[in-house]
Amino acid sequence: MNGLNWTNLAFLLLIGASLAMLLTENWRLFIACLALQYLAVFALISLQWSIGLAAVKLVVGWMSCAILGASQPRNELLFSYRAGTAGLLFRFLSALVVWLLVFSFAPGAADWLPVGNEVLFQGLLLAGMGLLQIALSTRRIRSVVGLLSIISGFEIIYAALSDSVLVTGLLGSLTLGIALIGAWWMHFLPEEEMSA
Fold this sequence. Notes:
Strand content: under 5%
Distance between the termini: 54 Å
Oligomer: single chain
Shape: globular
Largest sheet: none
């Protein structure tokens, strides 16, 4: 498999995982899609960096998935909202709007950043889907995963700019820190206290 096909496969996995996270109501499937998203981020970053350095992103991402998955209560298999057909259609159309905005913004952003249009499109798309994840839900796990998606989108763009080991470690620490704080936030502060 050559580099172009690997890029396309990873990009399709990135789009599919981020869209499935936006549309699913089952939190286990939600966490599984997050793990697939980190696999796609690893594949895209490994095109820029060495496999060993890119594997840090994969391991840290999967550790974050494990932390978030372990913090969910066993009896809560579904998220508390029931979107229905209209809600799912709205989420899907919102994702299409984000994709169109990113597609139109990426070539202009290439003037600011010395990376290819495809790298900017991948990173900005993931960051945009993270923002959409935060904007369309009041669930804490969706907010935490939205933040993690924004950071992953930044990491895709950053990988094309530099391969600093120190920044990789700091971003890994930030990812794990957000996952740990999010797990604490979901476990020790019940959802009702947030709306009060």
